[in-house]
Write a structure and sequence with these properties.
With 366 residues, this protein is of the alpha+beta class. The protein is built from 11 helices and 9 strands. It has a 5-stranded antiparallel sheet, sandwiched between helices. Strands 6-9 form a two-stranded antiparallel sheet. The chain has a two-stranded antiparallel ribbon with strand order 7-8. The chain is globular. The relative contact order is 0.12. The model is unreliable at 1-23, 82-87 and 341-345 (pLDDT under 50).
């Protein structure tokens, strides 16, 4: 594919340079099933003849692009095979995205929700396809080349999170969406149990990090809608205007809880030019946001505090917790791979990620 073709494809909303291409696989959302159903519920017969492709990158709910002469939409459903009754709740995800559609938070417009009794034999929902750039490894060629443009992207990214945390849950029908009180204490118990169930060897430094976090839990200031996995590649950047977030994606971990948990997650995934060695070693992705113009962590925290009015003096604790959570997630992947439950190659790297993440968390609490 030529560079010009790649630019055209990116403008249509496909992944940009450095991201995976769309996989032409429709298992779990077969076109001959999806097309007629969309024609019925979206009231347009042009959906009957459609193409469906599985979008890459998701490790939980599956995301498909559906394309026809009627346009493009996105379909989300749980993974194939056995699923725990409360896991991968796409109806819950549909509910929060629909509710936020009435706010200043940028989300796709939802179009249809179907239960497990429907045509796919699994629940799914359909939403509009938002055109823009989803960036993990790199920005698209020719996009936000100037430091001032990258600064605007960073600012908009923080502002979108602040807008989410400003939403009154009860005011949008989400007053019962979770239990905000005691949120971080429950999170620590949850991830402590996960660590116990997946440890394949003793790792005293992780035990100490968990104990230190349990001993120093900050007082919770507010209970808001939290995204649960807020990072740059879970947002869609405007296709041509650098500095505008047109959608926040992947709401499957959202609930009501401590808003600073989202800020800590943002900071753990963020890369900055002045990162010290523990944070460099713990990086999840190529350091796109370390390029000139992107704000550093201190600037992010300052901007978030100005937008929300929250006291952010204890934000290092939340970032350390985010590193603990990531370490336990990677330990779980490594444990399943060691037990033969993960197909394919490349899972050996997951075990090697655990120790740097723990060390980054301990450095923040030192």
């Amino acid at each position: 594919m030529s560079r010009e073709e790649l630019r055209r494809d990116t403008r249509r909303g496909a992944p940009g340079p450095g991201t995976s291409r769309v996989a032409p696989i429709a298992r779990g959302a077969e076109p001959d099933v999806v097309g007629p159903r969309l024609a019925e519920v979206l009231h347009d017969g042009a959906w009957r003849d459609c193409e469906v492709a599985l979008l890459p990158g998701g490790k939980s709910n599956l995301t498909y692009r559906v394309r026809s002469d009627a346009g493009e939409v996105v379909l989300r459903r749980p993974p194939l095979g056995h699923v725990l009754p409360t896991a991968h709740d796409v109806a819950r995800e549909y509910r929060v995205v629909t509710a936020l559609g009435r706010t200043a938070v940028p989300v796709p417009r939802t179009l249809h929700l179907e239960s497990a009794d429907g045509v796919l034999g699994a629940p799914f929902y359909v939403m509009e396809r938002v055109v823009g750039h989803v960036c993990r490894d790199a920005l698209p060629h020719g996009y936000a080349d100037a430091p001032a443009e990258r600064a605007r992207i960073g600012g908009a990214f923080v502002d979108a999170l602040a807008a989410l945390h400003a939403v009154d849950p009860a005011g949008v029908g989400l007053g019962d969406f979770g239990r905000p009180a005691g949120f971080m204490e429950r999170q620590l118990r949850r991830w402590g149990r996960q660590w116990e169930s997946t440890r394949t060897a003793e790792l005293p430094v992780l035990d100490r990090l968990l104990a230190d976090l349990e001993r120093t839990v900050p007082a919770q200031q507010a209970g808001t809608i939290v995204h649960g996995d807020y990072r740059l590649d879970n947002t869609v950047l405007h296709p041509t205007v650098a500095g505008e977030i047109v959608a926040i994606l992947d709401w499957e971990m959202s609930t009501l809880g401590d808003p600073l948990a989202d800020l800590g997650t943002l900071l753990a995934y963020w890369c900055a030019a002045d990162d010290d060695e523990p944070l460099v070693a713990a990086r999840m992705f190529p350091p796109v946001t370390a390029d000139a113009g992107f704000p550093g962590r201190a600037d992010i925290v300052k901007r978030y505090a100005a937008r929300t009015g929250f006291d952010v003096a204890g934000v290092a604790w939340y970032q350390a917790f985010a590193y603990l959570k990531l370490a336990v997630i990677f330990q779980g992947i490594a444990a399943r791979a060691a037990g033969g439950a993960m197909l394919g190659e490349g899972f050996g790297d997951e075990q090697r990620r655990v120790a740097p993440l723990v060390e980054a968390g301990r450095a923040l609490l030192a």
